[in-house]
Specification:
The chain is mainly alpha-helical. Helix content is 54%, strand content 5%. A two-stranded antiparallel sheet has the order 1-2.
């Protein structure tokens, strides 16, 4: 039985490929400049065409260390630790029945996270998605929590008249 009959199409051509120059084979591979870097810091792909199947993920922009690599771990990740510390303090105050101040602190922590993400070039693990998406997500959620904390009953610090009218319209109809 001939070799071509035993193997699928093109199997007989493989020995010819092995004889080709390895540099020529490296030039034939498609590389994408937006992929995660390899061990030497070069991107694995050099074209902007997206691959059919994703095999790696790139770090979000600004996802580098917030301090030099020789600094201790907490110092390298100070932005996320600052935001988490404020959120933790807000949760503690909320648990201790200082609800309005605790939730305000949680909202302020998220707004501060958005500001840090906008201002600093490297924020460590505070960078989760793209810079724009992080800023919008942290900012909108933080502002919503602050506004809701200021409108909470009894004795709200902030009263928005059209919301009361809207509630009466929906309940009475």
């Amino acid at each position: 039985m001939p070799a071509e009959a035993k193997h699928p199409k093109g199997a007989a051509k493989q020995p010819e490929r092995a004889a080709e120059d390895p540099e020529q084979q490296a030039e034939e591979t498609v590389r994408d400049a937006i992929s995660a870097p390899d061990a030497e810091g070069r991107p694995r792909r050099v074209t902007r065409r997206f691959p059919l199947f994703t095999k790696d993920t790139a770090r979000p922009e600004g996802g580098g260390r917030a301090a030099p690599g020789d600094a201790p771990a907490p110092a390298r990740q100070w932005p996320i630790l600052a935001v988490l510390g404020l959120v933790g303090l807000g949760l503690l105050l909320t648990a201790l029945d200082v609800f309005r101040v605790g939730t305000l602190l949680i909202g302020i922590a998220l707004v501060a996270g958005a500001a840090l993400r906008w201002i600093l070039p490297d924020v460590g693990m505070l960078a989760v998605r793209s810079r724009f998406t992080d800023i919008v997500t942290y900012g909108v959620l933080g502002l919503a929590i602050v506004l809701l904390a200021m409108m909470v009953q009894p004795h709200p610090w902030l009263q928005i008249p059209f919301l009361k009218d809207t509630l009466h319209f929906t309940v009475s109809s």
